[in-house]
């Protein structure tokens, strides 16, 4: 995940890098059994964002593109939820979780902008 002024602007690459960061983060956490499902859901939703962006980019129509980006946006919101829940219920690397939340919020804004612009373009 690029930081500071070195942010990656390609949404496909950025969501891929985010998914990798989440996986690397989860690998560092000693997970108690009761919290396993939270981390499982986090990995699923975080990796789903990039997978849906990639699938949307190879869609056969504008509707396909929009559909997969909308799903990616929903997964991004879900990933933010799991990160926030983990932060509030576990003693984990709070700084790292905050960085992941911040990046997911930025990706969410980018996805929302992509969706809105493409919806507007499809009504022209």
Mind explaining what this structure looks like?
The structure is a single chain. The chain is an all-alpha fold and 124 residues long. The protein has one domain (4-122): 23S rRNA-intervening sequence (de novo design (two linked rop proteins)), CATH 1.20.1440.60. Helix content is 78%, strand content 0%. It has four helices and no strands. The protein has helices at residues 11-28, 36-57, 62-89, 94-122. The model has no long low-confidence stretch (mean pLDDT 92).
CATH level-four homologous superfamily name: 23S rRNA-intervening sequence
Mean pLDDT across all amino acids: 92
Strand content: under 5%
Order of helices and strands: HHHH
Uncertain runs are none
Number of domains: 1
* Proportion in helices: over 70%
Structural class: mainly alpha
- What gap, in angstroms, lies between the N and C termini? 36 Å
Structural shape: elongated
The major beta sheet can be summarized as: none
Radius of gyration: 15 Å
Instruction: Give the C-level CATH assignment.
Output: Mainly Alpha
**And the CATH topology?**
de novo design (two linked rop proteins)
Can you count the beta strands? 0
User: Which CATH-level-2 architecture?
Assistant: Up-down Bundle
Helix count equals 4
